[in-house]
Structure formats: C-alpha cells, structure tokens
Design goal:
Layout: H1 10-17, E1 29-30, H2 33-42, E2 50-54, H3 60-67, E3 72-77, H4 83-92, E4 97-101, E5 117-122, H5 125-136, E6 145-153, H6 154-161, H7 171-179, E7 180-188, E8 193-194, E9 201-208, H8 218-230, H9 236-239, H10 247-253, H11 267-278
Parallel strand pairs: 2-3, 2-5, 3-4, 5-6
Antiparallel strand pairs: 1-8, 6-9, 7-9
The protein binds S-adenosylmethionine.
C-alpha cells in the first residue's frame, strides 16, 4: 500500500498497464507519492478549489492533489495508455476526478471547471512554457486561475523569477511578474524522476494579482518588451527604433536613458515606456 491512499504503488501501476516512459511525450514520471503530495501542498489550500492538472501520466501528482484535499481535479492527458490507471484513481475518489484524453494545447477545459480554479502540472518543458505564456496573457485580467504550480527545467524556472541585471532576465520574467507573484518553491534533482532527465527541475508557484503591478496596455507592453529583448545587447534607442520614430524622446519621458540596455530596465520602467509609446 502506498503512504497516501489505498491504491497500489506507482511502480506496480506502471508495470501492470505497460506505461514505459516515452521520450516523444516528454515522459519523466514522479513515483514517490510523498514527493507528489509535497508538490501538491505548494499549490495552497485546495479544499475549496477545482484543480486543472495537465499531463497526469500514471497519476502520481493527481494522487497527491486528491490526498491533499482538492475538491475536484480535471486531468488532461495526451497518452491514451495512461487512461486505465487514471480511471482507477477516479473510481477510488468518486466524483472528485475527471479524466480527459487529449492535447492540452487544443482543449479548452473551462467548461468542465468551477471557480475558484488552481492549476498544477508536471509537463514536458516545451508544452509547459507555451501554456504558461497563454495563461499569463488572457484577453482579460484577472485570469481564470488563482495560482499555477508548475514543474520546469531549473533554467526555465530561473527565467520566470529573474530580476533585472541578470542573464536570465527577459520577456518571460516581465510577463510573469507584471500580473503575478512568481516564486521557486521546490528544487528537484534528476533522480526524483523515472527515467531521470538530464537537468535539475524546479517547481514554480505563481499567484495571480488582482490587478497589474503597474498600468500598461498588454499589447503595447508585449511589443516593447519583445523588441527590447530581441536585441538584448543593443542600446534601447537602437533595439526599439521600429517601435516609434521618436523613441529616444519617449524613453526619456519614461525616465529611461536611451543608451541603456533591456537587461537593466525594471518592470516599472517597461510599463512607463509602454504608456509613453501608447501616447499619441
Ligand atoms: N504528471 C506525471 C508525473 O508527474 O509523473 C507525468 C509527468 S511527464 C513529465 C508529462 C506528462 O504529460 C506525460 O504523461 C505526457 O504524456 C503528458 N503530455 C505531454 N504532452 C501533452 C499535451 N500536449 N497535453 C496533455 N498531456 C501531455
């Protein structure tokens, strides 16, 4: 028996259902249920929340979320081989787990969720980054989620929480920190996964702020930040030339020296610049 529920240990589940990990699906499984419960705890109090889990695989994190008291979990998995194992978990927790087969990049899960909603996932890193950017850039704010608790390659996690002046600082940091609090809450060595990946991983927890930290039009801010970091070594007066013909004046009006580089500008500065660029 496992430590946290009455279902069989994950190694048995994997053997019984023939769930050998597939590289093409980015499958590195977490089999230690104490660890998955610990990750689930980082997501906060789940007892009054629906949890959207992407990529449950054999269900280690799913079992953690349920044992930590999630009101309801909606789990979306692309690999049909995992469905029988996930359905066994659903049977053990009547009415608390809904499993959907499909690609999380294509499914809109909102019809199946009741707010408040938290998101938790251990996903392949490329899918995770793409979903994170989508979740951070909805048409309206606040977004559908209260928090995101996501596993990333350590290097990606560091880009999400990076501060100005560091190499990791860029578009992802600004996008994440403009409208949410982002923290690294756990570090995991490769050996925590089966099979072990090449690099260490980190769990990042993001909490949605009710309002942006500084006012700015999202599309303009995105344009300015993308242009500034596309040529991050250049001075802003050069990298932002295409953004507005009088960009040097607008930079000065925002309190930024045109000779500075993107890496040195804090979030507040980019928001001020976005407001100046939006001014007619
Ligand atoms: N959450 C499980 C765990 O922690 O052991 C599995 C983690 S494994 C890194 C990633 C999981 O995401 C795999 O089960 C894989 O099949 C699934 N996956 C990959 N791409 C996906 C996609 N586009 N949509 C939904 N699931 C996906």
């Amino acid at each position: 028996m496992s430590a946290i529920d009455n279902l069989p240990p994950l190694r048995e589940v994997i053997a019984e259902h023939g769930l050998s990990a597939r590289k093409s699906l980015g499958q590195n499984f977490l089999l230690d249920l104490n660890l998955t419960a610990k990750i689930a705890r980082q997501a906060g109090d789940l007892s009054a929340c629906d949890v959207l889990e992407i990529g449950p695989g054999p269900g280690g994190l799913t079992r953690g979320l349920l044992s930590e008291g999630a009101r309801h979990v909606l789990a979306i998995e692309k690999d049909s081989r995992c469905l029988p194992a996930l359905n066994e978990i659903a049977e053990a927790h009547p009415g608390r787990l809904t499993v959907m087969e499909g690609d999380a990049l294509e499914i809109d899960p909102l019809a199946h969720l009741t707010p408040p909603i938290r998101v938790a996932a251990n996903l392949p890193y490329n899918v995770g980054t793409e979903l994170l950017v989508r979740w951070l850039t909805p048409p309206d704010w606040p977004p559908f989620w209260q928090s995101l608790t996501l596993m990333f390659q350590r290097e990606v996690a560091e880009r999400i929480v990076a501060k100005p002046g560091s190499k990791a600082y860029g578009r992802l940091a600004l996008l994440a920190q403009w409208r949410s609090d982002a923290r690294i809450v756990l570090q995991l060595p490769p050996g925590a996964f089966t099979p072990p990946p090449k690099v260490s991983s980190s769990v990042v927890h993001l909490t949605a702020l009710p309002e942006p930290r500084y006012p700015a039009d999202p599309a303009v801010l995105n344009r300015v930040v993308a242009a500034a970091f596309n040529q991050r070594r250049k001075m802003l007066r050069a990298s932002l030339k295409g953004v507005a013909p009088d960009i040097e004046d607008r930079l000065r009006a925002a309190g930024i020296a045109p000779t500075e580089r993107a890496e040195q500008i804090p979030l507040e500065g980019f928001c001020a610049l976005a407001r100046e660029v939006a001014r007619r």
